[in-house]
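Support reply, case 0932

Customer input (verbatim):
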Amino acid sequence: MRNVVWFLVIALAIVHFDIWFWDDKTLLFGFLPIGLAFHASFSMACGLVWFLAVTFAWPKEIEAWADANEPPPTPATEGGMPLQQAAGMATDPFSGEEDSL
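Our regenerated output:
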């Protein structure tokens, strides 16, 4: 199903560049320009494809990670200098010395 969703996304991207309704003066229902009707239909189709993507092609690993109740990794816990210390230090690019702000 994931491949079908990707195909639909690419198809919608191609169809979005509509050049066939630019000069068409046809009115639907006597008041709605056909270009506007096309874009309204296109928007609804995009919403449907997004629904399909979330329902059938959403990565299960993300849901499993979210349900595990583990805190997300942050730059301060992934190694290197803690953010509080890095925020208070500045390095002179020419001398390489660290100056306190």
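We compared this against your earlier run and they match. Two observations from our side: The beta strands are 27-28, 32-33, 89-91, 98-100. The first strand starts at residue 27 and ends at 28. Please reopen the case if you see a mismatch on your end.
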